[in-house]
Amino acid sequence: MSLFDEPTGKIASVLLPKPLPEPFDYAIPADMQLAPGMFVRVPLGPRSVTGVVWAVKPGPPKRPLKAVEALIATAPSMPGVLRDFVDRVARYVVSPPGNVLAMCMRSREALLPSPVEKFITRGQGETGRMTPARLKVMDALTGIEGQGAHLVTAADLARLADVSAGVVKGLVDAGGLRQVELDADPPFDAPNPEGEGFELTADQLAAAQTLRDSVKARDFRPVLLDGITGSGKTEVYFEAIAEVLRGQPEGQILVLLPEIALTQAVRERFARRFGAMPAEWHSNMSAKERRRTWREVAFGRARIVVGARSALFLPFPRLRLIVVDEEHDGSYKQDEGVCYQGRDLAVMRAQLGKAAVVLASATPSLETVANAHAGRYGRVVLKARPGVAVLPDISIANMRETPPDKDSWLSPPLVKALEENIASGEQSLLYLNRRGYAPLVICKSCGERLKAPDTESWLTEHRYSNMLVCHLTGYMMKKPEHCPHCGAKDALTGVGPGVERLAEEARARFSTARVEVFSSDTAGSPEALADIVARMEQGEIDILIGTQIAAKGHNFPRLTLVGAVDADAGLKGAQGSDLRAGERTFQLLSQVSGRAGRADRPGRAIIQTWAPDSPAIHALAAGDRDAFMELEMGNREMMGLPPYGRLAAVVIAAEHSMAADEAANSFVAGAPNAEGVEIWGPAPAPIAVLRGRHRRRLLVRTERGVDLSGYMAVWRKRVKLSASVRVTIDIEPYSFM
Ligand SMILES: [Zn+2]
């Protein structure tokens, strides 16, 4: 080591984008000035890794440290507010902070200066001696100019003219062509708040004023912008954006959208309102586009970013407003890798940076409504435009008056509606939140109901896998030939419908219809799920029979009929494993109606119920969202479920079934003692085998006041498991797969 490299005695704590529990300490060389937020290269084992200085501490170190290798001076420092966010998120979602940092460093190239790109354009000088090859080049350039372009790469020009690169170079040397150098990541055009606005109604003006006040106040308080499709939510939150652009010339704005598919349409609306395309951020961008957005955001030059949930991890130095559009949408929840709810993190990010937050939705989540009720969030309501339907035409099929035939689950009114839909080539969705073939197995001989051995729950018959399964604990057995109670042979029979059985009935009844089951058993992988969604979108399915995963915000343009086969079960819902069933039923019905205006035929829904007088069915049939939400909230409060209690899911995955059981059992055995904590499980996860790994799941419920993240972190730390076992902790889970 040369004198020049002698450490100063100071220490840099460097966080690395790796699953490590904390930052590592390195010695700072004497010739290096470091401050928190700077990107540096440090040795890690035999390799060299890029990380972020998390703290600079006085030395000297207690033990010899490896030295920081290099400062990446071309990278903008990571803002303090983002570093705080990384720490807060890591703690909240019970993840190593390095895994959260990795989400902030998704564009590796962004740390280097933007490269310069070379282009060819028409020169001022002589073209020199014109050869046939040179003529071809000039002709090609004229052609390009004819299409309105003035810049082309040398390689493209040579290819278009069908000449060698040397010919183009010769023309540049002669002066007929000119080479220009441009930044590969040009700044985004500046948005203009005074761009072409919209004519706002009195209602919308009042709502916009509330949002503007929230932006101006800079005291953190989220606002729920509650208005149905077509009520002008976007135009109203555009006014909040304009307020930032006007009042805070360096302020930045982030607009989160649930679907990448929506991004382009929304960006064009921005371009019309603000005269410039906003930056974008999502998984479907090229490395070059990501580098440009990341750098422009980091330098504070990108004023507006429209993106997916991952845009929360961009290095905004001056984020002043976050809009979460369709805040209820399930796709804000990431349930693989670092599990987080993007809406909740948006609120956390805004709070750290004293930014305003607007949560916009036509069917707000119960969590957000509860926050508004409690006064933690403000609320702005946009009333419906006259004539705009809130829900589809909803009718009740009273199963007492029009019961289905024996061994059938579809009532005559629903059968008739399905027939009409098939005849007119439109799509139908039968919603039944019961996986498998039959929810109950009984003995015809003695009446015994088959129960899981260790819990008070009935076994469900799955014909797909030929097993009897307890959905509460996940206990599983082969269907026995003899009744375990009386010994009668072949007397065990499935009672009631699951999606598999409903599909059997639909296929028998509507022989020409293409029927498909959509549940976690049949669409167990993301690929299988995407395949069913794609076939439904392309009209290759007539009747889709789905559990709650079918209700997850898919947009099926030709879907005009929804049959809620067993609304009673859907609305009883909250059994821990299926917390949002009722909410999803309601959102599903609203989504169907959202399309009704576009289709030439209005959407309709038929709700089969044995309890037509129940308050929830009344609220649903009347399209009375607020009454419905009140009831749902009452149920959740009674059961101590979110948002009134807290929930965490733990999935333990191992290569072998026995190893998964052992790991799950020792995990549960290691649970710290605490008041107000309930542990349910372990049990095989609903998707018990995923990508070859056996999965066990448990649920942890606590009172609202309990620090669930802290509890889970202590628990995770004290249980030592084999390195091949994977533990995923999901705070406030959405998916129970
Ligand atoms: Zn029996």
Fourth-tier CATH superfamily name of the largest domain: P-loop containing nucleotide triphosphate hydrolases
Oligomer: single chain
What is the overall silhouette?
globular
Using the 3D structure, state the CATH architecture of the largest domain.
3-Layer(aba) Sandwich
Number of domains: 6
Topology, number of strands: 31
* CATH fold assignment of the largest domain: Rossmann fold
| Rg, nearest Å | 30 Å
Mean pLDDT score = 86
Low-confidence stretches: 1-5, 595-599
CATH class of the largest domain: Alpha Beta
Structural class: alpha/beta
How does the SSE layout of this entry go?
Elements (H helix, E strand, L loop, with lengths): L6 E9 L8 E6 L9 E6 L2 E11 L12 E2 L8 H14 L3 H8 L11 E7 L9 H15 L7 H8 L3 H10 L2 E7 L18 H16 L5 E5 L5 H15 L4 E5 L3 H15 L4 E3 L5 H12 L5 E4 L11 E7 L7 E2 L5 E2 H11 L3 E6 L4 H8 L4 E5 L10 E6 L13 H12 L3 E5 L8 E4 L16 E3 L4 E3 L6 E3 L13 E4 L3 H11 L5 E4 L7 H12 L5 E4 L12 E6 L2 H6 L8 H16 L7 E6 L5 H7 L3 H15 L5 E10 L2 H13 L7 E14 L2 E11 L4 H11 L7 E6 L6
Helix pairs in contact: 1-2, 1-10, 3-4, 4-5, 6-7, 17-18
The structure holds zinc ion (ZN).
Zinc ion binds next to loops.
